[in-house]
Amino acid sequence: MKTLLIWLGKMGQFHLQNLLKISEIEKIYAFDVSKEAFKIQDEKVTYSTNLEDFDNLDYDFVDIVSPTKFHYHYLEKFIRLHKNIFVEKPMVSSAEEMRKLDKLIKDINYKWKIAVWFIERFNPVAKFLKQKINELWIPKLIEIFRYNPASDRIKDADVVTDLMVHDIDLINYFLGNSTSITWKNIQNDNATVLLKNHNANITLASNRITQQKIRKIKVYYDNLTIDGDLMLSKIEIYHKPQEYLTTKGQDLSISYLIEEKLFMKTNQLLEELQEFVDIVRGGEFKLLADYESGKKSVYLINQILQDV
Q: Are 263 and 131 in contact (CB under 8 A)?
């Protein structure tokens, strides 16, 4: 297999490192506007600062890791070329771009695969929660907290597009693409949004003011609370408090931990890229976000940011 990698910033370098680990990939064409980005030297990699150099070459898919504001430009180009596409989150910058992309796909009868890079789907804690929600059905409440210090690398994205986008996708992944907004409060680098999906109430909180890194999910049922830490790869499950009678005849209410799980940390990006390689070769979507999931996230982000 051959692939074309678009943009070699920090995330692009990570993608390149992991593409080189995939045995099915024999050739990587890599584009960036600056030769300074051509850091990794490998016989499998051919670099160019001119994207047109690759126009007449054959490759199986494109991996777009450019800043979000350029996503539509590259998506339009490679959809018109009828290429399979793996693109960083969010898929495009606005609802308007999303509608234009939708129209283009229908107009040219594009039949290839598009997947959106939502890496948290491959977090072992998220995988466990997905399985648990499938078993127990819709919870009463889900809370997701994502706090991360502002990064000098992220200059063109607000806190919702930068951080909360992951959690919007996780809700769609857990419960399906029928999420609606009930309340929001967006203030610079701090955002809180209340959502509804089926009968579940959802709270998303993202913050770039903090000097802490926090990525936690809490899932609440009538008799069960599941506390997941996406950074520590840890799950704690608490049972509904039971009432016990003391030796003095007094009621004593005790909440106790019934289960703790620690997961091995994995290379989530490698897993994600490998799944897309398998899809291009004829496999099915398993964890990866498909085009429809990516589109739903774009529209929900647009609604959240309206009038902000």
A: no
pTM, two decimals, is 0.93
Which sign, positive or negative, has the C-alpha torsion 39, 45, 48, 49?
negative
Q: Residue 239: what pLDDT?
A: 84
SS3 162: helix
Q: What is the mean pLDDT of the chain?
A: 94
Terminal Cα distance for the chain, rounded:
44
Are the C-beta atoms of residues 265 and 234 closer than 8 Å to each other?
no
pLDDT of residue 164: 97
Residue with tokens 């001119």: 50
The secondary structure element, H or E, covering residue 300 is helix 291-305
Residue type, 140: K
Report how far residue 107's alpha carbon sits from residue 115's, in angstroms, rounded to the nearest whole number: 20
3-state DSSP call for residue 228? strand
pLDDT band at 251 (very low <50, low <70, confident <90, very high): low
Distance CA 120, CA 122 (A): 5
Strand partners, 166: none
* Mean pLDDT confidence for 135-159: 88
The pLDDT of residue 254:
60
Task: Evaluate if residue 253 carries a pLDDT over 60.
Answer: no
Question: 3-state DSSP: the chain helix, strand, coil percent, rounded to 5?
Answer: 35, 30, 35
| pLDDT at position 255 | 56
Spatial neighbors of 12 by CB under 8 A, at least 6 apart, are: 5, 6, 30, 32, 37, 65, 66
What is the token pair recorded at 87? 């693109």
Instruction: Spell out the domains of the chain, with CATH numbers in brackets.
Output: 2-118 (3.40.50.720), 120-266+286-305 (3.30.360.10)
Q: Is 124:264 a contact under the CB 8 Å cutoff?
A: yes
Please state the rounded mean pLDDT for residues 284-302.
97
- What CA–CA distance (Å, rounded) separates 128 from 98? 31
